[in-house]
Structure formats: C-alpha cells, structure tokens
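To whoever picks this up:

The parser on our side crashed when reading a file containing two proteins. I've narrowed it down to the boundary between the first structure block and the second sequence. Both blocks are reproduced below exactly, byte for byte. First block:
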Amino acid sequence: MAFVSMFIVFIVIAAVIFGLMLITGLILLIVGIVNKSRPKHSGKKFPMVCIVSGSVLLALPLMAAAVVMFWGIAGVVKEAFQSREYDSLSERWSSQLLLTDSDAAEQAIEGLLSSADTGDREAFAKNFTPELQASEGFDEALDSFFAAYPTGLSQCDLDGGRGSGSDSYDAGHTVKTAHADYKCMQDGNWYSIMMVFCYKDTDDPDKVGVTKFTIMNLEAAAVFEDEFSRNPDYLDDVYLLCDIKSSDEVSARLIGGWPLLWTPTDTPKLTAEQMRELIAGHDRLDDKDLRNTIGTANAAIKYSNCSWVEYYYEIKDENGEPRYVCIHTNSPFDEPDIPYGEILSAYKCTPYEIDFHDPLFEYEGSE
C-alpha cells in the first residue's frame, strides 16, 4: 500500500510539474511572438529566446504525454490480441478479432499434433468444434485415431499448409472456413495430413473449430487417391481418421510428390532420353511397338472430372534415387474406358517433383 501511495504522489507531482511547464511555455511563447512583432524589439534576442524556451517547455510535456498514450494504446492492443490460455480452440478463435486462414491453420495443426504426441486426449478433442465433440461416436473416433497415431509428428518439418478458404458475409453474419494440407517425413516414412476448420461463425460458435482431420501414410494415401479418383465423395463423411497401412498390405510409391498404387513389372528400365526418343516416334501409348518396348505401366490413375489418364513408368535411377516418367493420354468423357490412348505429354519425375521445365514430349495441339 505504501508503494502504491508513493506512486500516486509521484504521478500527481509529475502532473503538476508538466502542467506548470505547459503554462510557462505557453506564456513565454506568447510573449516572444508578441514582442518580436513590435518595432522597438526589432533585432533583439529577447523575443527569440522566449519563443525557443516556450517551445521547449511546451514540447517536453507533450512528448511525454504522447509516449504515455502510445504505451497505453499498445497495452490495450496487446491485451486484446495476445495469445493467452484458452479452454478450447473454439474459445480462442472466437476471442481473436484479427485472424487469417494461415494463422488459424498454424494454431490448429500445432494444437492437434502436440496433444496427439503427448497422448492428451482431452486437449486433442478441444481442437474440434463443440458440435463435433458432443456428437455421437466422437469418443470412438478418438479411440481409433490414437490407436493408430504414429507418435512424433509434431517434431517433423511440415511441408505445405496452404489451402483455399471461404468467407461468407450477410448483414453482419460472418462464417470463415478453410482447409490445409501438409506432407512430412518421419523416420523415413511419408505422411499426408489434411485439416478442415471453421475459425469464425458469428451466429453459431459451436461450429467454430476443426471439422475434419486425417493422417495417412504413403500406402493408405495411395489407396485413398485410387478410391477418390472414381468417387469424389469418398471419406467425405469421415471427420477424424488416422489410417496407417503396411507395405505388405499395399504396394505404393511416391511419384512427383503424389502417392500412387504400384504394380512391379519385369520390363527392363530405360533412361529418360530413351523414353524421349520412343515417345517422339509414336502418337499413341497403345501402339504395339511402343508397348512391346516399355511394357505395362507401373501405376495409372484417372480422376472422374478429368479427360486424361496418367500413366507412370519406372526408368533408370539417377544418383541412386528412383526416377519415373509420367505420360498423359487422352481419354474423352464419352469413352472413359479406352486405355493407353493418344499421347498428350510426358515428363520425368523424382519421388518429390515433376520436371515440367524439360518435358520429354508435349503434343503441339494441346496448348
């Protein structure tokens, strides 16, 4: 109490001093300006001394007041927007006035993976919307997720995270949703992480939070892509999933950063340049001579909303790393079952990238 009293006394004394400085400075400034304009003081230093002294005395308390005001405003802003302990992600997002898709995604993925790694089911669950947490089957979904979860993903370097968002504004009612996709490696294993979330709903805060979260390893993601290519609604109704399949169960490869079901063949591996020459001499992938040389594709996929098929062939390794060729062929919507059609383009691939800068083949009429 004594300290508080002394502080108040100090504030009062400082205010009195600043007040006297303001009054004195104002008087000196007025005196200096008035006397400077009188002919009898022309050329004398007295008016200018008064003006300078008055200006200094006025400036000091005004600067002090500006500093105090700045600190006060900064404190209010910090209090309004700084991170603090929240009971749930929904509460945190509902309290934050300025929040972007990327900020929300970063907060959500950090909360989900860190709590999953420590096995904190309660903290993990609180990242989801209150509506989902109260839904039937949520506890069973948590059980299945934690039974399959590969501990340690929070320590991985996540690649990606960028995803599309959606904002809806209607007479003061706001809904903001987004999704984020991540890829990461842990102990030599590749994982795909997908997250959908709503970070603003002014009408229904129970719908604020994570609405979908899935983790798949390479084999599980390859199965998903194969199913999704035929049915875009595949797993649409699943909001929490950790799917880990073994290589004994599913054969898969990562090609161009994409998980694909893989079929080994005994066809001799060609070089990228050999593939370039072969493709350049044939218009269609079902050409008998071409097929006899390159054999059957190791992987193939056609999405239901696309008019082409992607075929993947393994070629000779480079620098000890696998290499592949991706060949796009035409497959019209009215004839989707015609395999190995007209060649549209061909590109060399690493497990992580597709080389679009140096195509092995591009059909001139495709542009």
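<<boundary where parser fails>>
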Amino acid sequence: MSAVLSAWLFLAVTAPLPSIVPQDARGPAHRIAGSVELTEAAADAAALESAADQLHDEIERRTDAALPRVTPRWLPVPVARVLVADWIARQDPRDALEIVDRDRTVRDHGSFASYQTELVVRHDQKALDRLLAGLRSELRRRGVTLAYVAGGTAGLWSFLVLAYWWLDRVSRGYMSWRLRFLFAGMGVAAPGLAMLFV
C-alpha cells in the first residue's frame, strides 16, 4: 500500500530533468517522396503517409523540448513521458500539414505501370502551436487523475488488509484462502479498472 506512494515519491525526487533541445532552423517547405505503388491513389497515399510520419517526428521533437516547461513539478518525469507518448499517439499530424506542390513519376514496366508521388509540404506552425497548446493541461489533468488512482489504491489496500484481518478473526480462520483470493482480486481489479480512466 505504501509502496505505491514510496515509488511515486522516489520517481519524483530522483528522476533527472530532461535537457531542453534547441529547435534547429528549418526551411519553409521541403520535398518528401513516397514509396513506389501500382496505382496513382496508392502512390499519393504513400507520400502523404511519409509526410505525416515526418511531421509526427517533428511533433515528438517539439514535445521533448517543451516537456520541462509544461510538466507539473510534482509529476515524475518517467510518468510524464508515458503520458506524453500516449498523447502523441492520439494526435493527427495531417491537420498541421500543408501540401504546396505534387509531382508524380510514372514508370512503364511493359505489362503494368508503377507510380511514385513526391510532395512539397510545409508545416503549418499555427496548427502545430494549437496542437501543442493543450499538452500542459493534458499532463496536469491526467497527472492529477493518476495521483488520485495511486492514493485510492493505497487506501483500498489498507481497507482490504483491515477487512481481511477482521473477517479472518470473526471466521476463526475458516475461510482464509477464499478471503485472500477475494481481497487480492479486488485489490488488483479495482486499480486496473481505474487506470482505464487515466
């Protein structure tokens, strides 16, 4: 029970703060070539996917740079990194992607043709800023929820230990193993269900 709180305190005190990574200067637009596909639509989709993956990496870099500024001081850095990774996985980078130009290469292979699309894309900085603006409140909200779950888990286990001790005394040890399985199941299932809401 107190192990959860001890681990939380240990992570908060001993985890080093990540260093701030300076953002490098980027040009306003750049070219991205997609993979070679058998249809024009598949080639366009592959190029767009490559551009989205590159922008996803850019969002990860900017998030790593912003992490020391947006993480609440009471939230351990390893926990914040897990929450940020989950937040990044839920973002759609296509909202901040602006296609400036498109070029398609067609290769004739005799019985069939293959297509490769090259996009000139620009990252919409305003959309990226809006995307990252909610990160601070997201970390604070989910961190508070996680702290409630950790505290509730410690309280639940304390209650279950006392309830087990009392019921074991009342039943004179008749249902010891059944009570252990029942209380251990409740002690594991309840925090597991609560983690679904973090």
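After patching the parser it read the second block fine. The chain has a mean pLDDT of 76. The chain has six helices and three strands.
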